[in-house]
Amino acid sequence: xxxxxxxxxxxxxxxxxxxxxxxxxxxxxxxxxxxxxxxxxxxxxxxxxxxxxxxxxxxxxxxxxxxxxxxxxxxxxxxxxxxxxxxxxxxxxxxxxxxxxxxxxxxxxxxxxxxxxxxxxxxxxxxxxxxxxxxxxxxxxxxxxxxxxxxxxxx
Length: 155
Fold this sequence. Notes:
Oligomer: single chain
Helix content: 40-55%
Number of strands: 6
Distance between the termini: 75 Å
Mean pLDDT: 80
Number of helices: 4
Strand order of the largest sheet: 2-1-3-4
CATH superfamily of the largest domain: Glutaredoxin
Order of helices and strands: HEHEHEEHEE
Radius of gyration: 21 Å
């Protein structure tokens, strides 16, 4: 009994690792996308996709909250198979988040709710806003806070 549980957990761990490696490789293959100065959601769907109407409603919710601060482009994978191929889209719906400079940052395979998309947009825009900054001539990570005390005055 214990052996089956261990085998099942190991199988789940391997499947999860393969998924994340595939997603990471997919991001690398896409490289830079066309930037328009705004974060962009590329939404791949089709008329024959059963989950696509629900995804469209989620995207309407995102647009309602982020109107004017995000561009949403719907791409019909059946009408534009070359674009779907360019982005290595194999499942529908697929949403791809691209930052303001054109770098693909997130890929969501399948139906993705509005809350997750909004959370991803917030993370994306916070990272862009922080950017890399410089202290003492050295490039610093935005996640690293360096606290420096003012020099002590001599009496």
